[in-house]
Amino acid sequence: MKKVINTQNAPQAIGPYSQAIETNGTLYISGQVPVDPATGNIPEGITAQTEQVMKNIAAILEEAGYTFADVVKSTCLLSDMVNFKAMNEVYGKYYTEDQPARAAFAVRELPLGVLVEIETIAVK
Questions:
Q1: Parallel, antiparallel, or unpaired: how do β-strands 101-106 and 71-78 relate?
Q2: Which residue ranges form the domains of the chain, and what is each CATH number?
Q3: I need a surface site. Which of 76, 87, 88, 103 has the fewest CB within 10 A?
């Protein structure tokens, strides 16, 4: 059975998709961009944007009853690979042991002109 996960503590979907879907003990979190759900603002710089993305992921994980320890896969999309090191430093604060599998790509453009977007899969 599929369950839609939605929280006001993460940005609302800006298209025909859900923040996350849970099915059979697996949580699929849509790519999160660095929008502050309280203000709608996007912070400046890759470090602040990655921090906001991770906060948004944390809010969705919490709403669904998961934690970062349950994350098995992340896909990081960057506007430019020059931002990889700074993104990786913030990302690493959230995964200190048993880190998930991960891929990181530079893409031509990201929604809203942001510098980073991260999608996440967690399993219980």
A1: parallel
A2: 2-123 (3.30.1330.40)
A3: 103
